[in-house]
Amino acid sequence: MKLGILGGGQLGMMICQAAQKIQVETIVYSDTSDSPAINFSDNHFISNYDDFGQIDNFINKCDYVTFEFENIPFETLKYIDKKKNVFPSPTINNIIQDRLTEKEFINSLDIDTVPFLNISKSLILSEIDKEFFPSILKTRRMGYDGKGQSIISDKKSLINLDQDKYILEKKIKLKQEISVITVRYQDESLFSYLPIDNTHKNQILFKSVSPAMIDDSLRDKALLWSKKIIKSLNYIGVICIEFFIDENNKLYVNELAPRVHNSGHLTIESYNISQFESHIRAVCNLTKVKPQIQYQAEMINILGSDISKYRDAQVKNNNFFHDYFKKEPKEGRKMGHLTKIKV
Ligand code: ADP
Ligand code: MG
């Protein structure tokens, strides 16, 4: 079995590591040479995502294709999907690459998001309620780890913005953030991992704890909404759904990540099957394995130059250090993570 992976980051790296364990060959396609995944793949291509000659060479080596980064150009994904199955189907990228269509899609399933407005010609500033501020202005496309976001405290700041490039989202008082990882196989069966509690620092994930400490009713609702979303997309593979819980215990979907997710790294050591192996099994139509929790776990991300401390230190019992082997430790860049399990 040969699995092609578009994108060469740490998510791709951990897919390759999981694939090695189950004898699936991996071929990585990335547009940058400092790509963690190519240290663990069987084969790789480095070129732009619109180099269709190289994309053809890549396709010829794969049985199935997936991606570890959701902003691969939709045209490229569609092109590949005509020749080899891409899972999850590229239709999801077309929805989630734009925060506006993503949120409209979620609302169309009768699932709540935080109230938002599209910054467009038809938006009349005087009609925006004062209650809407403070709010967060987010670029509709290409944002991640809080990039492309700013806090807006009044209407004045909205004058002269480019049209159809932003959404404005009400800033809510967050009590908790959780995520749910679900895998759906080609025979339509699906399994969810238990909700994970996520803490962000400077809008970047800092810490994940599994399982999240939440009321049963909230847990059930998050699992139910996750199932509804994944089924309605006829989705194959792993999806992660990020949720907000506000101070009144109200649940909202924040965003969908159509891929393995940072909050699920702790599944490597704390479940019988990691999110990475689940994804490979679903995409490549291999035998199903139901995820079952084995240990409580906590993961912290290691950003920027902090990585050197961990590279030099001895790892304690029941701690698992993962180095992404990135060359440049830029500030805020995810360089590795540490998972602690409770045995
Ligand atoms: P990204 O695509 O960069 O992950 P998110 O929309 O998930 O963007 O925002 C990153 C983080 O910023 C969230 O996990 C949350 O901590 C905070 N945040 C985003 N939107 C809101 C909001 N409407 N109200 C309060 N906090 C928010
Ligand atoms: Mg997010």
Give the mean pLDDT: 96
Ligands and ions found: adenosine-5'-diphosphate, magnesium ion
Structural class: alpha+beta
Characterize the largest beta sheet: strand count, sense, and whether it forms a barrel: 9 strands, antiparallel
Determine the strand fraction and express it as a percent band.
25-35%
Q: Would you identify the regions where 5 or more consecutive residues have pLDDT less than 50?
A: none
Q: Can you describe this structure?
A:
The protein is α+β, with helices and mostly antiparallel strands and 343 residues long. It has helices at 10-21, 52-60, 74-83, 91-96, 99-108, 216-232, 267-270, 275-283, 307-312; strands at residues 2-6, 25-30, 43-46, 64-67, 116-118, 135-139, 149-152, 166-170, 174-184, 190-192, 196-201, 204-210, 237-246, 251-257, 296-303, 319-323, 334-342. Strands 9, 10, 11, 12, 13, 14, 15, 16 and 17 form a 9-stranded antiparallel β-sheet that branches. A 4-stranded parallel β-sheet has the order 3-2-1-4, sandwiched between helices. Strands 5-8-6-7 form a 4-stranded antiparallel β-sheet, with helices on one face. Strand 11 and strand 12 (204-210) form a beta hairpin. Helix 1 (10-21) crosses helix 8 (275-283). The model has no long low-confidence stretch (mean pLDDT 96). Magnesium ion binds at residues 242, 255.
